[in-house]
Model the fold of this input.
Amino acid sequence: MIERRMGIAEIERVYDLIAEGVDRATPDKSELFLAKLSLALANLVGDSEAVANAVLAAGRDL
Amino acid sequence: MHVPSSEPRPSVFYDYKIHAYRRPEKMNQKQPANPVVIVGAGPIGLATAIDLARFGVSCVILEEDLQVSEGSRAIVLTRRSVEILQQLGVETPFLDKGLPWSQGRSFFRGRQVYTMVMPHDADDRYLPGLNIQQQYIEEYLIAHCDPTSLIEIRWGQRVVGISQNDTGATLTVDTPEGEYTLICDWVVAADGGRSTVRRLMQLRMEGRAYAGHFVIADIKAKINLPTERLCYFDPAWNPGNNVLVHRQPDGIWRIDFRLPDGESKERALEPELLHRRIDAVLSMIGHPVEWQLDWATVYSANTLTLGSYNHGHILLTGDAAHLLPIFGVRGVNTGLQDCNNMAWKLAFVVNGWANPVILDSYSQERVQAAREICEEGGKSTRFMTPPTRGSRLLRDVVLSFSLSENFLKDLMHWRTSRPHDYWNSPLNSYPEADREFHHGIACGQPMRNVKLSANEFLLDRIGSRAGFHLMIFVDEHGLTGDLQEILAAATNQPYPIHPLIVRPDDEPALDAGAGTVADVEHRISLKYDAAAGTVYLIRPDLHVCARWRRATAEQVLYALHCALGFSAVVERS
Done:
């Protein structure tokens, strides 16, 4: 299970920011945008084991 | 010439009664001005009339139809709405008929992924939700209008013109016998989402309209499920969209689903397609039973409000003033809070007890509430009908994660209608005294209920007594010194103020005429952060407008002065 570290207001803000980012990236570039975002966030987390767990979690139930 | 239909609307559960058009007295003669004319006999117009009558203010209600609402429309009353109905003294038939509930469950790919139990305090009398069809809401309110000589409902009369000057307003009313002129001091426009008054006044709303369309269908079916909110995301028969199911009285079920993008309203209501989709919903919920259609319509979501609800002698309220999303049951529940906020102020102005500027506070407090609702309801709406590719992708991420992870599940919360906090109201006073409390009910917040015994609650003691309320907390010696002076001063006003003495024991009140409540277990004192000497001044709509740890008669009178718009705004808290 991914530990929850943000309150609802912060999660809502992040939700809107990423949604707007996808809209700005246009359909053919949104995969690139999301992959760049993932690597940037992984770097900020600074823990490759945690990133590996997140990759597994994100791969479920697609 | 307005010719309303006198054919009862078809329904498989509700027996529509036709209220005959009657020629108004003095139709073509010069007539004395009516104090208040309400446009629209929907739930909000009727509740406004009943609220005004509590203060002795009479009104005429103009209703263009001869019968109640077409279809069940607003079907969920919140706890706050039922508390408002209790203030109006009309709650009993609603509680007898309605189906109370408190939880919702959401499903995705056949699995239950989210459960929300709406907050319910042991001190609350009513559950968070009460399902009841709008036909019954209107019927019960109309029944309450009948016995009072103060409310005259004019059925089959449509407003076609409106104008105003410094002293009042003039309506042109069309009837089966032609037009006539109706003069009044005040107009309350409670004529709903397609408000004629709003259109005639050319008022524009601000905010956002969402593109997705939804079908609402009411069916009669034998389904053995409890009363709760059922939500299904992305069902196989309607990919990418969602379905809501609500139980109503009389074996009626509300089915609500989003249409595929680009599908027209006309197409969605074609009987064969609608039939197939309702069958698919019933199979999905595991009850593929026989059913009969009662009513169906198409709606879309909006977060729109007028920037002001008071325009001279014309006040707008409910959906006439704003169009809010269905998600979170925002329509009738927001409207009841609007008109409960407005009615006492209008009554006090009509009776000469308040400065007409307090009507500005109606607009200020309720426009602020509507903007909060647009913000909260907008989030729910963007989840239910994502307006862009990005928001749809993020919604799908939340659904996908919901099958294995918990960290995003709160985004599935549907943010139910709630009472609003008028923390910055110009009617509040003594902010420094308010800040001396650690908790309790702060200035601007609505009173909260307290359970006193098995079937007795604090708000029952307030009941339907119209006026201000003064809660005075005393010790075992009862009312002494300053508190006695406060009581004497406050009850010596031209307008109604009802004292409620909260005692720590069950000794009878020493002062005849003052209501007393025994707080032997200190439950009220705890909830209101009160000790002997604490005083709460509460507006007629049961929002606190001043409170003190220790007060003087002079302070209480000044706070009343502020609440009636007779003083400049005291420092805002």
